[in-house]
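worker-3 :: picked DNA polymerase III subunit delta
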Amino acid sequence: MEYIKQLKHIRNGQISPVYFIYGTQAFIIEEMVQEIISNALSKEDQEMNVQRFRLADTPLQFIIEEAETLPFFASKKVVIVYDFYLATSQKNDSTIEHQVETLEPYLKQPLPETILLFIAPYEKLDERKKVTKQLKSNAAVVQAAELSDQETLKWIKEQADELGIDVPDPVKRRLIDLAGTNLLQLRSELVKCQLYSGVGGEVTMEAVEQLVAKTLEQSIFDLIEWSMGGNITAAIELYKEMVQRKEEPLMILAMLVRQLRIYLHVKELKQRSYSEKQMAGMLKLHPYVVKLAARMVTRFEEKKLKSSIVAAADTDYAIKTGRQDKELAVELFIIKLGSLSAKSYT
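worker-3 :: tokens ->
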């Protein structure tokens, strides 16, 4: 089930006996854990009735025994199992022997007084494993994955309401542009906006521009847009700011190449009439990244993008063979992006 829908169920008191939470969005995982604890237990009961285990340190059969034990002078208890690698192909150096067969009978008949959480902070599950199938069939499943564009906007509204601030839709979108789609980062920036605007205040576009620091990805996006759009002065100023922030020139070059490749792939797929959703799936990119790329690629010719990638490879070779200083070489490449965009191809 979607993370936001599952949160609503929990807040309405509809808490499942077993949860299986997997994915790499740490904010979603932590929020789910905290919401379950705070809605299932009073503050007085939490100290004695929240047990946390790491699978690498504790046999699964011991955890199941704990789940089958009644809470301590309370109506509910919460048992949390972190790093549940048994549902993945993830290798683990633990010498603990797990009796996985103890899980199935518990899943079929969980103790009503226990809320058991299995947390697998991994991008992919091993769908072939019996334990994965059992959890997906018998537990409330929450994927802690990156949200879609619309889900992110909805999430920002919920967070803003909680913080007591008003964030208009254009400001929400600009916040995503600058801070990216990482929920921990977005939450941090919203808190910053609340401190600036005050509870009950409206977050303005000017406030976001002033308060929110650009992510490396957004800086790369602007570098390409400005240099290939002919605004070389602004692009070079931004590059020098990034170097002053201790960004490694070779990393900047690698990120530029990555973004240029994304543009090239999106342009090719767009010409073949693929939707943005299909492109995101094929390229394994966040839908918002594809949306921005699709908007930009109409301004760049395919041959120019290919020539830019070749020029980047030449720059990388010049740096690694010692022919050019890395900081100067990347600056010259940014200038070259502008000259390439000015050429016309027949």
